[in-house]
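Entry:
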Amino acid sequence: MQGEYHTGRWLVVIVLIAALAIWIDLPGTTSFLGREVRIRQGLDLQGGVQVLLEADVPLEDAVALDDMRVARTIIANRVDGLGVTEPVVQLQGERRIIVELPGIQDPDEAVNTIQATALLEFVAGEALLDEGDIVYTTLGAGATVAYEGVDPDTIFGSYETVMTGDMLRDAFVDRGPLGEFVVAFRIKSEAADFFEQYTAANRGEFLTIVLDKRVISNAVIRDTIRDAGIISGGGDVGFEYLDAQRLATQLRYGSLPIPFRVEGITSIGPTLGQESVQASVRAGTIGVAIVLAFMIIYYRVPGLLAAMALFIYAAINLALYKLVPVTLTMPAITGFLLSTGMAVDANILVFERLKEELRDGRGLRAALENAFSRAWTSIRDSNLSTLISCAILHYFGSNFGASMVKGFALTLALGVAINMFTAILVTRTFMRVVVHGYGEWLKSHRWSLGI
C-alpha cells in the first residue's frame, strides 16, 4: 500500500509538471512569474550579422588578456544598445572578438556601433539630466549639451572638456561616511597633478560626466582631488546600489583599452534561417515518429507508456528553452534531437531488463522493480559521462569563440538531465499504474509486454 501511495503522489506531481510545461509551451503564453517567455532564435535561424574583430596593434606586441576581457564587456554593453535579442560577444584566441547579432540586417550599423571607441568625458558646467533625453556633442575644443530636437544654441553655450575616461585608473562602488553607497574612483598618476590643480580652482562647480554624447551624471566638486575621490548621489540617501554600480561600470569601462579593426563581416539572410528551421523540424518530426513507432511496435504497452513519457520530455525541454532562456541554433536543435535519442535508449535498457526478469520466472511487479533498479546504474553512468562531455564543450565554446558548440552542449545537457527524470521516474510511475490496474491481463497476454 505504501508503494501505491507513493505512486499516486508521483503521478499527481508528473501531471502538474506536464500541465505547467504545456501551458508555457503554448504560443499565447508570453510571461511567467513576471518574466518574458519566448523562443529565441540564433544567428543561423533568423539571420543577422557576424563581425570578427582583431586587436589593431602590431603582431609583435602582446595583448593583455585583461584588456581583451574589458573590451569584450564594453562591446557587449554597446551591442545591447542596438536592441539585439541574445547577441553573442566572445573572445577567440588572444587577439580576436566574435560578435554575432541576430536580426540585424544592416552590417554598417553593426560595425559602426561595436567598433567605435566609447567616449567618456568630464565636462565643466552643469547639464540638466532628464531621463537620458540630453544629447552631448563635441564641438572642437569644447562641447555642447542640448535636448534632442532642440537647437543647442538657444539653451547653452559651450562647455569645456576637462578630461577623458583614459585618465581614470579604476572606479568601484564603496560606502560613504554615513554608510550610503558612493562611487569611488582613482586617477592615473600622469593625470594627478592636472586634476588636483583643476579641482582646487573649481570647488563648488559642476563637473558633468558624459558617455557617448549622453549625460550620465552631474557631479559637484566639493574638495581638491589628486589621485582618488568619490561621487555621492546627493541628499541623505545617496545612490541606490544598482545606480552606483551602473555609474561605476560606465566610468571603469568608458573607453576601449585597445583599438580594433574589422577582419571580416558575414551576413546571413533570414531566408536561409527559415529554410534551416523548416528542414530541421521536418527531419526531427520524421525521426521522432519513426522512433516512437518502433517503441510501440516492438515493446507494445511499455513502448506506448515510454512514448507518453517522451512527449512530456519534449514539453519540459521546450518550456525550459523559453524560461532559461536558450537561444536556438542549428547545433542547439541537434543537441535536443540527440538527447531525445538518449531518452529512448534509457527506456530500451529498462524494457530489455524487464523481459529478462520475466523470462527468469519473476512476478510482474518484482520484475518491473528489478528492471528499473538494475538498469539505473547503466543509465546513470552513461548520462553522467555525457554531462561531463557537455561541461567540457560548454567551457570550450565560452572561451574559444565557438558559440555553436556552446549551444549544442547546453541543449544536450538539459535534455540528459530531463531524461533522468522522465525515463526513470515518469515511465516507472506509468508502468506501476498500469501493472496495478491491469496486471492480470498483462500476465495472460505476455505479447503485450513485447515477449
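The chain has eleven helices and 17 strands.
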